[in-house]
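To: structure desk
From: M.T.
Subject: fold request, one chain
Message: Could you run this one when you get a chance? Sequence is below, nothing fancy, just the single chain.
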Amino acid sequence: MFDFSRPIDRRGTGSLKWNQPDPAVLCMGTADLDFASAPAIRQALLDLADSGMYGYYAKPEAYYRAVTGWYGRRFGCHIEPQWVLNAPGVWVAARMCIDTYSQPGDCVLVQAPHFSPIARIIDCAGRRMVTNPMVLKDGHYAIDFADFEEKLRQYRPKIYFMVNPHNPTGRAFTAGELQRLVELCDAYGAVLVADEVHSNVLFDGHAHHPILGLGQRAQKIAVLITSASKAYNIMGLTYATVLIADEGLREQFAAAMGGYSMDFATNIFSVAAMTAAYSPACDQWLDELGAYLAGNLDFLCQYIAAHIPALQVIRPESSYLVWIDCRQLGLPPEELRALFLERAKVGLTWGEDYGPEGVGFERINIGCARATLEEALARIERAVKALGAQ
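Reply: Done. Structure tokens follow.
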């Protein structure tokens, strides 16, 4: 049994999540966990550090076995070792894909609400972002396939950049939804780049379907980007696994990697951590983490329904990031931010960072000890009630 209930004070440690000018603020924004990583990961890093040898190393066979074995155990998905490439992080991999599979001036299609980094990456790459707004009905987000196909037809994007599970809505797309997306991208000649970094935490019996597990048609057009970072809390060991089944797509990406020496000069501590994370030694830790986070999610939903009914939780199917509908408060973004940050002293990820579809929403990170979550919600309750009393 692992103890996730003990709060860990991260103030003053250099944590980006907890780097707030006001030390009274509870930081519930940036997507990392306030839990120590799995013991097997820590031990792998200690063993490497104790060796005193930090030169160039080839990735060991154990790493490839860990990646392919993990996909088999967690998702029943067969991955060939030769499909496994890497990059120094998910967003680096995303930019490499944009540079590799499109040209300046081309369009990149994304679902909305969308996280601000992908908009910046597309813009900095000299491409144009086209959005496919998701439809919110009865607390559930759905893909607008008619709009998706129209955007493919009208703009002819070279790339569809998919985030699945989706950030910030928490949707874990069904196999049927994914098959339809694959069919449309294939029909209109778009490479499907799937960011699946949030796939390790699932709720309420929902499943994650890796894009490369959907058959040959998907494997012909898809690039899968993932990392152990989000679930195993190793974001600082920046690393992403890039899985490409199609030989042509893989050769293109490998050529881009070679241009940056990204395969030869790999951080050996990142590889050690990833190998440990994907090994069976961390399976129980991940399962217990998921159970603890499910308890946090239930607590959040019940507390808000009972004490802050002006807010609506968009219950996620995955991840530890929860999208909150605050539109009933009737506040513009700057006043909504002030309500949470200045009055409640709770730092969130602000909805307007997700584009126009995010205005009136905020994202809260429940990857913390229950006591921290309880305190944050109590603060928010007091601030909202004080707002109504004015």
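Reply (cont.): The longest strand covers residues 107-112. Let me know if you need anything else for the meeting.
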